[in-house]
Design a protein that fits this description.
The chain is about 55% helix and about 10% strand. The protein has about 375 residues and is mainly alpha-helical.
Length: about 375
């Protein structure tokens, strides 16, 4: 039978068993463990050894927790957290995203706040310097938003990895101006189309394709022949290309081909039989439709587009105006907004309406005239 206070007992098989209590972190409660031997003295010695090792484990664990708590009070500079965070971004995010974040940090945060401490009283100095920089007049509203976003992501990293325990910065009161995004007028569209059809070539067909589908410039330049489905008469967006800055190498920028900017950007777009015929006239053995052996450089397409505008007697515009013009034309011709949203690659219909759909003055005038006709009908009924 068991000895009083020792939790040792003799089993029916003749062996002695000693039990001791441990806390199981996985189960979240205390459990019992056992040691065994053929004699009472031996099991008592084993039990004492097990309890001693358990005590040592607890002391080591407590020491590690204390060291971790001490580490949380080590001076952490904003620059140190930023460099570690950027390393994490480089491993987990697209390279183009890493370059964007790195550029924002190095240009706008490193010099202003890099040597400020994140924790303690240093946080007040850090936040003050960042907000002083955001108040500079030469920064655009969208850039201020990006700077604030990067700063808060660095602070979140410090809280997550160093238990810095600092609040995130309040978002700057950025009021983005909803300027009227320009589209090509009907007359300008007519002149551009006339110039394209006068003598067609690969670049003119590329411009026409964007005007008829709303493709982004990077998506257009990355199109491959395998993305064109002749039977279903569709073009599938599987990739995009952009020129980004690089930290090392013989050139300052490189042409980078990646997946589209979001899952909703991966889409299939229907094209007309006429558009399909024009594209098939360009068919060659090279993989890319417009770049042939490699993706077309977006800068090259921009230069050619500007040339076409000059030849068509149209003022200089950004290539993206073709996407705006396509969306506006679709809405004015009563295309279902949900269908248009999917063609443009938007995740939300609201984005389509707020950002890419811009009714013209002619469209507004037509709606007003329809309302006046309606009022006239009411007056006629009253008479």
């Amino acid at each position: 039978m068991g000895r009083h206070g020792e939790n040792i007992r003799k089993r029916s098989d003749g062996r002695w068993e000693g039990r001791y209590k441990v806390f199981d972190e996985n189960k979240g409660r205390s459990i019992y463990r056992s040691v065994y031997s053929r004699s009472y003295e031996a099991v008592k010695e084993k039990l004492s050894k097990a309890k001693f090792e358990l005590t040592c484990e607890k002391e080591v664990k407590d020491a590690k927790e204390a060291l971790k708590a001490a580490d949380s009070h080590i001076t952490l500079l904003f620059a140190q957290a930023a460099e570690e965070w950027l390393g994490e971004v480089a491993e987990r995010r697209k390279y183009s995203t890493y370059v964007k974040y790195r550029t924002v940090y190095q240009t706008h945060l490193a010099k202003a706040a890099g040597q400020c401490q994140i924790s303690g009283t240093g946080f007040f100095q850090l936040s003050t310097k960042i907000f002083d920089h955001l108040s500079e007049e030469n920064l655009s509203e969208s850039l201020k938003k990006s700077i604030g976003c990067v700063a808060n992501q660095i602070l979140s990293f410090a809280n997550r990895n160093y238990s810095a325990g600092v609040p995130l910065l309040e978002r700057p009161s950025v009021k983005l101006k909803k300027g009227n995004v320009k589209t090509l007028t009907k007359a300008e569209q007519a002149r551009l189309l006339s110039h394209i059809y006068q003598v067609t070539d690969r670049s003119k067909i590329a411009v026409l394709l964007c005007l008829c589908t709303g493709l982004r410039l990077g998506e257009l330049c990355a199109l491959q022949w395998e993305d064109l489905d002749i039977k279903s008469m569709t073009i599938t967006v599987n990739r995009t290309v952009q020129r980004i800055a690089v930290a090392e190498g013989s050139t300052k920028t490189v042409l980078l081909e990646t997946e589209p900017k979001s899952e909703s950007s991966k889409r299939s777009i229907p094209i007309t039989a006429e558009m399909l015929c024009l594209l098939m006239q360009l068919k060659e053995s090279q993989p890319y439709i417009f770049g042939r052996e490699k993706p077309l450089d977006p800068r090259t397409m921009q230069y050619r587009f500007q040339k076409f505008l000059r030849e068509a007697k149209i003022d200089s515009r950004n290539f993206h105006i073709l996407r705006h013009t396509f969306a506006t034309n679709c809405v004015e011709n009563n295309m279902d907004v949900k269908a248009l949203s999917e063609i443009l690659g938007h995740a939300d219909v609201k984005l389509t309406l707020n950002r890419y759909v811009h009714p013209t003055m002619d469209s507004k005038r037509k709606q007003i005239e329809m309302l006046l006709d309606f009022y006239g009908q009411i007056c006629g009924q009253a008479a």
